[in-house]
Structures are given as C-alpha cells and as structure tokens.
Amino acid sequence: MALWEKLLLGVLVVVVLLWFRPGLKAAFKERRAASQAEWISALIPIALVAAFVVLLIVFS
Predict the structure, then answer these.
(1) What Cα–Cα distance (Å) separates residue 39 from each residue in 43, 44, 45, 46, 55?
(2) Which pTM does this prediction carry?
(3) Inside any domain, residue 39
(4) Domains of the chain: total
(5) b/e map 39-58, b = 16+ CB within 10 Å
(6) Is residue 3, in this structure, part of any structural domain at all?
(7) Model confidence over 4-59: pLDDT tens digits?
C-alpha cells in the first residue's frame, strides 16, 4: 500500500471511532451486570471453537 493509502485508512479508522463513540458511551452506561451462568454460557462455545481450531492446527 502506498503511504497516502495508509494515511487515508488511518483517518477513516479515526472517523469511524468518533462516529460510534456516542452509541458506545450510551451502551456502556446502560449495561447490566451479567450473572455467572450467562458468562459460562458465553465462554463454553468460545472455548469449544478455540479447541477445534487448535485441533485443526495440530492435525494439519
């Protein structure tokens, strides 16, 4: 990538972050605390996917 493309991409990233900032700020303000059961139910599929990826890497 040319230098001007990298700079343009950096400016685009900053603009997108500034664009989403109000929504993210409101979402963090209005969030609720998750229970332990909700965390476990979210982490189990993530762990299974990670284990599957590791298995694929080992056998390739």
Answers:
(1) 6, 9, 11, 11, 24
(2) 0.52
(3) no
(4) 1
(5) eeeeeeeeeeeeeeeeeeee
(6) yes
(7) 999 999 999 999 999 999 998 898 888 888 899 999 999 999 999 999 999 999 99
Q: Would 20 be classed as within a structural domain?
A: yes
| Enclosing domain of residue 3 | 1-28
Max distance between CA atoms of the chain, in angstroms, equals 49
Structure tokens given for 28: 């963090």
Residue 35 CA: distances (Å) to CA of 10, 32, 38, 42: 38, 9, 5, 11
Structure tokens belonging to residue 18:
């500034």
Structure tokens at 29: 């303000």
One-letter identity of residue 45: P
- For the chain, the residue count is 60
